[in-house]
Amino acid sequence: MNKIMPKRIIIIGGGITGLSAAHRLLELQEERGLDLEVLLIEKSGKLGGSISTVKKDGYLIELGPDMFFTKRPWALELSKRLGLESELIETNESMRGTSVLWQKKLLSVPEGFLMLAPSKIIPFLKTSLFSWRGKLRMLLDLFISKKGPGDESLASFVRRRFGEEALERVAQPMIGGIYTADPEKLSIKATMPQFVQMEEKYGSVIRGMLQNKGETPGDSGARYSQFLSFKNGMETLVKTIEERLPSGTVCLNEAVNKITRDEDSWKIQTDKRAIDVSGLIITTPSYHAAFLLQRIDPSLYEDLSSIEYASSAVIVLSYKRKEIAHDLDGFGFVVPNVEHSNLIACSYSSNKFNGRAPDSHVLFRVFVGGALNPDICDLDDEIIIQKVEKELSDILGIKSEPEFTMIQRYPDAMPQYHVGHIAKIEGIVEKVSKLKGLEIAGNAYNGVGIPDSVHSGEQAAVSILNDLF
Ligand SMILES: Cc1cc2nc3c(=O)[nH]c(=O)nc-3n(C[C@H](O)[C@H](O)[C@H](O)COP(=O)(O)OP(=O)(O)OC[C@H]3O[C@@H](n4cnc5c(N)ncnc54)[C@H](O)[C@@H]3O)c2cc1C
Fold this sequence. Notes:
With 469 residues, this protein is an alpha+beta fold.
């Protein structure tokens, strides 16, 4: 008698997207009683992709992401479903605030200034971060007529509504910094659609913010603070999902390097074996998804490989608090490109969350590289660390050598959402939908943060089951 085999689904890539997809498949399998075999294949020796937490001598060090945004709810919802509510920690409200390095000095971003525009007028008028001329130009946003539909760059949007100072001193380092991107290319619609919506609805971003009392559309009555992490670091999410997956689901140190298709079934070639599957979810960076799909649909290859990536590195440094002259108010600082610094930003990790460094010590995370300063990533580790140490000492008045340093590189890890990104992704989604049993997911498509990656993986799980059952 012919035994009916379970449907086999392969997930390629074990970052948070792949893990979320695997976990959602498991949930739906249990809910619906599906006969399913799930395999997650990860090229490296560990799960989590960019997420990496290290514990060392009383420090908790995040080498990659250190928190997630709660207004995009999917990472928080997943954490709750995983029973991790009691592990969640909020940012240190008493330390809140960011500074900007301007003419070699750290100046606080005025209270209520949200990425590119003020939502509170008095602190904005009082700040020395902008000239009077610059402030008046920003307030012209209240009177400038809106542009027609169509995408534009972050630089074009900010220049048009608020002028060059707002772009140079805040929008470029704060928004460009998150995306490690060139603001002249970064799509405003794909990255900060809330500001486009405010222009559209209120005819002015500032008016929109004032009407919404500093909340951008999509904000909700929050029980949690905007940013959360876990007591034991971001890897908590990775480890908890890993523990939930049935044994035999995860295959580490195995890379998928070829995919072929035969009517309704797919063949996956790894560096160890060939596997026949009913469905697959590709969660690798899009350039690798492009490579894997080149034989299946050359135009999909073109679209996927046209999404550019930037490289960056995170440098971790620890000091005794008493060796630092600066009062270290806030969560850290960002560095405008016009400052010609090697630093994109510096985060005061031990201010942001409790339990990140022993008492009387400070832990910093410095970001370098990105689309505007790629060359630094070509240097040796020691040289990068030396450059960062020197600049940080000058900015913060540090009198001693660091107690220890670490560096983690992220080559081609940050997708660049250039103008036209949304239309490009719509095209990709349409092409993928024609290939039964295939889903692609990850941070290259509909959001770069952890919540969006979780959502993307979970949506892929739902779609593939709809395709196969
Ligand atoms: C330095 C840094 C700081 C960040 N900070 C934050 C933050 O604070 N908050 C936030 O929300 N987001 C942050 N992000 C973004 C966030 O970390 C990522 O968007 C998210 O982790 C992406 O997850 P992913 O699974 O899509 O991709 P990845 O984490 O890149 O995982 C992809 C996986 O696919 C594997 N893979 C690749 N090719 C193959 C193959 N052929 N076969 C098998 N496996 C393969 C890779 O080894 C990798 O494990 C940060 C990113 C970086 C780089």
